[in-house]
């Protein structure tokens, strides 16, 4: 397989973008990525999108987006694995370039979530769970992560305050990200006094409903070396599944798909958790970030809550997690999230992350998760 | 929103708690599958769920899906039945402050939700404290 690098990134301000359609927000970021890479032509494209059918009543967006990007007749595919769709789009694009089938591939992600009302959005997101045996009983996504949170608190003594600190930390980072949906700080008190959604999770434990897109351009590393910018290589890729229904899993506090995808990526990159300088992980709910850093081997099982309390996961800490602000502050347009994570890592490794720049990181990891953990995609990147 | 055929198809599980036992490794599966996720056997015998068990974890849904708006807030949990099967369902006839991990529960047949004013009345299993 050939080595692959990211040579261009494109992302715009996320939020409730009433004036823009799905095609607009995607094409804006794709054009930014093409400009950043200094190219005007691609050989193929993959776009992560969880549910354009339920959110805007539009399927077949592979054709729509290639068309409005002015790239027909290039092959284009929509990729879906719930909230991990963006991460999977990168993996498929990576495979196409690594295999030698194509040289220049666009990988994007998009979700337009505010063209439906709150109930319809909740329904669309809920379709990532087992509709017949979870959704039928009235469980919601915050509800599923609340079940995980309660079990984690019982088994490991994780506290309500530790979960709140995940949101506080991610908003502290997000306040320095001008493209974030909620670029401001919050306090532990404001989390603990916010509206209860599904006990013990409150509204400020939850990532928001967001319109947004993100795009990157990838190519063989030899081509990237000819450009006058840092070469950011994809050195590890992992993808794994778990039972779709939370109740079917042996240990509800353990994200087996994240563990498996992480293990694949570490093996491929020949790296270990201690080699990773920063991570962008899937904090769709505060408890998720706690479970994810355990499954990726950053901390021992059960120590994810303590890690944030000890400030290990802050930008200044030993294991910076979600310097972009994470899903919590940056926003969570589900199909776009996995690609935006890649962009944050590329910016950080290139020294291009502005006010939230870490001190000279070389190796970064992304972890993008679907449903209550039924799918996970992990990537590792290295600056040459 | 279940269509009649989609609803009818699940009746053996939702009304009669029909499960299957793997003839090779003995695990009880609910809902039934075509291949055992534990040992990959395709050989099963019919069985019925144990009707008692305990709460493994729970939450109280305060922002519900639209079919459940008139029921909120309500408790949902994951229960482990005495035959080892784990399943998701509502916990009812129990004050929220009495909910706890380890609480003994039993299955009762109840209405789950109504499909608006003229749609299907959807039934199934819920859990109540086993006193």
Q: What oligomerization state is this entry in?
A: heterodimer
> What is the name of the CATH topology of chain B?
OB fold (Dihydrolipoamide Acetyltransferase, E2P)
Instruction: Assess the beta-strand content of chain A as a share of residues.
Output: 15-25%
Helix count, DSSP H or I runs of 4 or more residues of chain B: 2
Shape of chain B from CA axes? Answer: globular
Compressed to H and E, one letter per element, the order of chain A equals: EHEHHEHEHHHHEEEHEHEHHHHEE
Q: Name the strands of the widest sheet of chain B in spatial order.
A: 6-5-4-7-8
Which bin fits the share of residues in helices of chain B? under 10%
Number of strands of chain A: 11
Task: Tell me the major beta sheet of chain A.
Answer: 9 strands, mixed
Strand content of chain B is: 35-45%
Question: Count of DSSP helices of chain A?
Answer: 14
Based on the coordinates given, report the CATH architecture of chain B.
Answer: Beta Barrel
Element pattern of chain B in H and E: HHEEEEEEEE
Shape of chain A: globular
Provide the structure class of chain A: alpha/beta
Task: Give the fraction of residues assigned to helices of chain A.
Answer: 25-40%
Keywords:
heterodimer; A: about 375 residues; alpha/beta; Peroxisomal Thiolase, Chain A, domain 1; nine-stranded mixed beta sheet; 14 helices; 11 strands; B: about 130 residues; mainly beta; OB fold (Dihydrolipoamide Acetyltransferase, E2P); globular
């Amino acid at each position: 397989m050939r080595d692959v690098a990211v040579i261009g990134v494109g992302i715009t301000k996320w939020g409730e973008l009433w004036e823009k359609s799905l095609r607009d927000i995607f094409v804006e970021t794709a054009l930014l990525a093409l400009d950043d890479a200094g190219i005007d032509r691609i050989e193929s494209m993959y776009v992560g999108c969880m549910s354009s059918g339920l959110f805007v009543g539009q399927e077949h967006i592979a054709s729509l987006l290639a068309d409005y990007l002015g790239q027909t007749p290039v092959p284009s595919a929509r990729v879906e694995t719930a909230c991990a769709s963006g991460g999977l789009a990168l993996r498929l694009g990576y495979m196409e370039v690594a295999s030698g089938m194509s040289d220049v591939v666009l990988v994007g992600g998009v979700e337009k979530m505010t063209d439906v009302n709150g109930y319809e959005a909740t329904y669309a997101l809920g379709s990532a769970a087992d509709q017949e045996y979870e959704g039928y009983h009235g469980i919601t996504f915050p509800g599923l992560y609340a079940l995980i949170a309660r079990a984690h608190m019982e088994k490991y003594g994780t506290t309500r305050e530790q979960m709140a600190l995940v949101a506080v930390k991610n908003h502290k980072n997000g306040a320095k990200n001008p493209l974030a949906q909620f670029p401001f700080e919050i306090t532990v008190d404001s989390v603990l006094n916010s509206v209860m959604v599904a006990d013990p999770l409150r509204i400020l434990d939850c990532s928001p409903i967001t319109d947004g897109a993100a795009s990157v351009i990838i190519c063989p590393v030899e081509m990237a070396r000819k450009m006058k910018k840092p070469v950011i290589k994809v050195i590890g890729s992992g993808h794994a599944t778990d039972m779709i229904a939370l109740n079917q899993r042996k240990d509800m506090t353990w994200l087996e798909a994240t563990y498996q995808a992480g293990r694949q990526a570490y093996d491929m990159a020949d790296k270990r958790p201690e080699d990773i300088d920063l991570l962008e992980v899937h904090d769709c709910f505060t408890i998720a970030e706690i479970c994810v850093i355990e499954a990726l081997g950053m901390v021992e099982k059960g120590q994810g809550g303590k890690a944030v309390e000890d400030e290990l996961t802050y930008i200044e800490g030993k294991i910076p997690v979600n310097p972009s602000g994470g899903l919590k502050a940056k926003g969570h347009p589900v199909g776009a999230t996995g690609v935006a994570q890649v962009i944050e890592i590329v910016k950080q490794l290139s020294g291009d992350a502005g006010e939230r720049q870490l001190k000279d990181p070389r190796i970064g990891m992304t972890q993008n998760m679907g449903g209550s953990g039924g799918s996970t995609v992990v990537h590792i990147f290295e600056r040459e | 929103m279940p269509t009649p055929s989609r609803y009818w198809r699940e009746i053996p599980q939702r009304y009669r708690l029909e499960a299957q036992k793997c003839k090779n490794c003995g695990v009880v599966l609910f809902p039934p599958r075509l291949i055992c996720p534990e040992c990959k056997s395709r050989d099963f015998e019919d069985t019925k769920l144990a009707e008692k068990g305990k709460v493994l974890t729970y939450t109280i849904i305060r922002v519900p899906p639209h079919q459940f708006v008139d029921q909120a807030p309500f408790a949902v949990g994951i229960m482990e039945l005495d035959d080892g099967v784990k399943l998701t369902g509502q916990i009812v006839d129990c004050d929220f402050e009495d909910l706890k991990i380890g609480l003994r529960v039993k299955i009762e047949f109840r209405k789950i939700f109504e499909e608006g004013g003229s749609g299907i009345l959807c039934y199934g299993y819920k859990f109540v404290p086993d006193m």
